[in-house]
Amino acid sequence: MPVIIQIPTALRQFADGRSEISAEGSTAGGAIAASAERYPDIKRHLYDEHGALRSFINVYLGENNIKNLEGPETPVKDGDVLMIVPAIAGGTVKPS
Amino acid sequence: MILLPEEARLLIRSEGERAYPNECCGFLIGKSGGTDASAVSEARPARNSREREERYHRFVIEAEDFMCAETYARKLGLEVLGFYHSHPDRPAEPSDYDRENALPFYSYIIVSVDGGAASNMTSWKLPEDRGGFVNERIGAIHGVPENINIEEDDG
In chain B, which ranges are continuous DSSP H helix? Predict the structure, then answer.
C-alpha cells in the first residue's frame, strides 16, 4: 500500500481534480517527487528552478511538519498520509 | 471576476489602516465560481507571522493558520478563495516577491495604504505558467449568495 498525498485545492486542477493521490516512496521527499513525476503540471508549483521544494510549500506527516522531523528524508511507510499545505507570503518591494 | 460584499471590502481597508505602517493579511472565504465569478462571503484577518522588523514590507500566513482557515471554511460548506494583504505607501500592484510565492486558483487582493489611509484595491490571479499576475475585476455583491446582484466596481 503506497503513501497517500493530500493535495491543496489550488493544485488539484493539475492532478486530474483529485484531492488525494497515492505515490510510492520510502521518504516524504521521495513520495512527493514521485507524485510530481506522475502529474508533471504540478511540478512547477511545488519545486523552484533549482529543483528544491518551494519555501512556502509545507509537507505534513500527520500533525507534524516534516521541517520539524527529518525534512525530505523523513521516513514514510505504506499507508502514511502526507498533506501538502502552502504557507502564504508576499509583500512590496523594499523602499529605496 | 471576484465578488466582494461591502463588509469584506471595509474590513480589508480597515485592517490595512490598522496595521499601517506594517502589512496586514487575511483570507477570502466563499464559493468558487469555477470559470465564472467567485463570491466572497467573508474576509477573515490572519496573523502576519513575519519577523516584526520585516512586516513593513512582508507578510507570511503560516501553514498551520492556513489549515485552520480551510477547516473553518469547510465547516461552512465554503472554501478559501484567496488572500488579501496591504501595501503600505506602495501601489496596489503585485511585486515579484508576491508572484514567486503565489499559487494559481487563488485570488490575491492588494489594498494600497497611503500615509495610513486605505486607497486603491486590486485583485490578481497567477496563471498556470506562473508567468505573471493577471488583474481580475472586483465586483460588489448585494444580497445573499443565492440571489446575487452584481455591480461592476473598479475598486
Answer: 6-19, 63-75, 96-100
